[in-house]
Write a structure and sequence with these properties.
By secondary structure, the protein is an alpha/beta fold. Helix content is 35%, strand content 17%. The chain has nine helices and eleven strands. Strands 3, 4, 5, 6, 9, 10 and 11 form a seven-stranded parallel sheet that branches. A two-stranded antiparallel ribbon has the order 1-2. A two-stranded parallel sheet has the order 7-8. Helix 1 packs parallel to helix 2 and helix 4 packs parallel to helix 7.
Length: 268
Amino acid sequence: MKFFKLFSPLKIGNITIPNRIVMPAMHLHLGENGFVSKRFSDFYIERAKGGVGLIIIGGCYVDQYAKGFPTMIGLDDDAFIPKLTQFTEEIHKVESDVKICAQLYHSGRYTFPIIIGMDPISPSAEYSRFSKTVPREMTLEDIKREQQAFADAAVRAKKAGFDCVEICGNAGYLMGQFLSPLVNKRKDKYGGTFENRVRFPVETIELIKSYVDDFTVGYRMSGDDFMPNGLTYKDSPPIAKRFEEVGIDYINVNDRHDSCYQQNWGLA
């Protein structure tokens, strides 16, 4: 089989990646209290040398409520910018054409209270078998604060020399928790109907774009939750369409990780 397009450039938003080879975000757990470590940098430098067109790092937590583990990369404070800048400069020095993306992460009810020192938050107070806790239902003030955290993290990523950002909306994390009727039991404008459940990620995309309007912004979403009464492949196209309408530049769809992760650890 000949891959006619694999090694040809691809324009996404305002960036052009040199080929169609993309390395998606992985939780490497090589960060040090949110900071980039040498092992983290060395890992991705080798991938850049290998000829990948786009490297997505993450997830990068956007605030303390979002924090999955201390070994993840932080984007919730300006203190992280210098080492992140050094990291992006090193990658671009190895291969100037490779593009680097920071994935904006929020675990919502999957966050462990012992890590953040407070109750996790989610659209509804629905028990999580993963964190073994009942999260606090988000107030409207919580919603605005977390949306702002995503926008602020995108600004920091841009300042640090990243070429784009990607919102982590797959695997049952906060964005998916708002979208899923299995988890989102709200009675206000952020719950119930499709248009209400999609409101949180849509508003977040719009807010990020208002802060970095010349920056490429992507979204990683699940094709199917594989959970009874959850989102299915029939729900995904309308969701993707709404994101396109508000300016998302690309959509990264995955299924199999979500299926294994959510059935084993519990979106329900």
